[in-house]
Amino acid sequence: MIVQESPPLVSIIIVNYNGERFLERCLSSILSSDYTNFEIIFVDNASTDKSIPLAKKYLNAPSHKLIINPKNLGHSEGNNIGIKVAKGKYIVFLDNDIEVEKNWLKELVKIMESNPKVGAAQPTLLLNNDFIWATGAYIDRLGWVLLDNYFERNKEQDNCIKEIFSGISAALIVRRNVLKEIGGFDSDFFVYYNDLDLCWRMKLKGYKVVTVPQAIVYHKLEFGKKSLDKRTLLFHYVKNSFIMLIKNYESRNLYRYLPLTIISRLFFAAKRERFLITIKALLWIILNFKKIWLKRLLVQYFLRSIPDSVVMKHMLHVNIFPKYVAYWFFHYRHNFRLHDFQLFLNRIFIRRPRKSC
User: Fold this and answer.
1) Are 94 and 14 in contact (CB under 8 A)?
2) Could you say which DSSP state residue 274 is in?
3) Number of domains in the chain
4) Is pLDDT larger for residue 176 or for residue 225?
5) What predicted TM-score, i.e. pTM, was given to this entire model?
6) What is the pLDDT of residue 329?
7) CA dihedral of 93, 30, 225, 345, whole degrees rounded to 10
8) 285: domain CATH number?
9) Considering Cα of 336, then 132, then 205, then 318, what sign does the dihedral take?
10) How many beta carbons lie within 10 A of that of residue 85, not counting itself?
11) Could you tell me if 97 and 127 are in contact, meaning their C-beta atoms sit under 8 angstroms apart?
12) Cα(46)–Cα(280) distance, integer angstroms
């Protein structure tokens, strides 16, 4: 008699901050998945709406967990708290504005089980049935980000599983043992760039990050960001882009690219407010440099097993900052939208000839 093994347990971590308006559709879609061996770990960052009563309504099974933080600890630390209590072989990070299709988790687990060198897998993030929001992310040498398949038509996407530079933590499955090796999210990354930093460290340890087109989720592009001041968001975005490079580059590449990154960020800060926020981010780096440098030493001397020459093959081969300068010119002179510009860049620098899987 053949005993069929049960599928591995998956821990789904949802960090929430005032996400009441999304939770019903998010949680009900997860609970309707055709993969049933999972636990939901709901981490609330001191919400002031009715998120907690709504979460309790759906997460009434003993396998699910509800954690309430006394204050908003941010996306990174919220996920780290969830990781500490997770029991699954795999951990899924999911934003509170995500809705999933029935087979999303089955497809992700299938890929993770098939190749132990895959450290993380990215489902397809759709805006709706017609358009893709992203299937992963790339950066150039200066840390400027471009989303894979950004706003492409869904029907134009092939079904090939391909390696990417980074997944997006709005919906990302990761091996629990890999997180033990490389550490979780950097808690200094309150929001933004935390997934890029995490996946970069995976690659330094020799793991792959892949995209899984058959796994479909829908992203409402909120994650409580409307509850945060735009200047605060921009501060973390710029600050974290610097920290990521300082931690993860080899010395020669750090000295080569970090000054150019700083110059490019200051140059792109056309408005006075944006310029001052960039200066504030640089001051934060200076004041916390000892702590950042200690993190760098841990990455370079205790984690790294792969040289930059290998990791950089999965970066964009052309720095896209000059293209953002062009966007700045056209935006202020001709009201050219950033959405249209990113779509243009995506088609030039990321799209590759289709291959049969």
Assistant:
1) yes
2) H
3) 1
4) 176
5) 0.90
6) 52
7) 70
8) 3.90.550.10
9) negative
10) 13
11) no
12) 26
